[in-house]
Amino acid sequence: MSSKPRSRWGWGFEGEMIDETELRERKAFLESTLGFPERPVRDPVPLSDTTIPDPAIEIPDELADFCSSDRAVRARRTYGMARPETIRAFHGDFTPAPDIVARPTTETEVEAVLAWASDRRVAVSPVTGGTGVAGGTGPPAGDIRAGYTGTIALDLGNLNDVLEVDERSRTALIEGGTLGPAINRQLDEYGLHLRHYPQSYRLSGLGGWIATRSGGHYATRYTHIDELVESVRMICPAGPFETQRLPAHGAGPDANRLVCGSEGSLGVITRAWMQVEPRPQYRSDAAVYFDGILEAAAAIRRIVQAKLYPANCRLHDRVETSLYGMDDVEADLVILGFESTDQPTDAALDRALEICEAEGGSCPDGPDHYGPGYGHDRPEDSDVVRWGEAFQLGGSGSTDLPLCVVGGTVETAVTWDRFPEFHEAMLAAVTDALDAECKMGHVSTRFTHVYPDGPAVYYTFRAPGDPDPDRRIEQWRRIKRAGLDTVMEYDLTPTHHHAVGRDHKEWYAKQIPEPYGDALRAVKGVLDPAGVMNPGVLVDPPGRD
Amino acid sequence: MSSKPRSRWGWGFEGEMIDETELRERKAFLESTLGFPERPVRDPVPLSDTTIPDPAIEIPDELADFCSSDRAVRARRTYGMARPETIRAFHGDFTPAPDIVARPTTETEVEAVLAWASDRRVAVSPVTGGTGVAGGTGPPAGDIRAGYTGTIALDLGNLNDVLEVDERSRTALIEGGTLGPAINRQLDEYGLHLRHYPQSYRLSGLGGWIATRSGGHYATRYTHIDELVESVRMICPAGPFETQRLPAHGAGPDANRLVCGSEGSLGVITRAWMQVEPRPQYRSDAAVYFDGILEAAAAIRRIVQAKLYPANCRLHDRVETSLYGMDDVEADLVILGFESTDQPTDAALDRALEICEAEGGSCPDGPDHYGPGYGHDRPEDSDVVRWGEAFQLGGSGSTDLPLCVVGGTVETAVTWDRFPEFHEAMLAAVTDALDAECKMGHVSTRFTHVYPDGPAVYYTFRAPGDPDPDRRIEQWRRIKRAGLDTVMEYDLTPTHHHAVGRDHKEWYAKQIPEPYGDALRAVKGVLDPAGVMNPGVLVDPPGRD
Question: Does residue A211 belong to the interface with chain B, where contact is any CB pair within 8 Å?
Answer without folding.
Answer: no
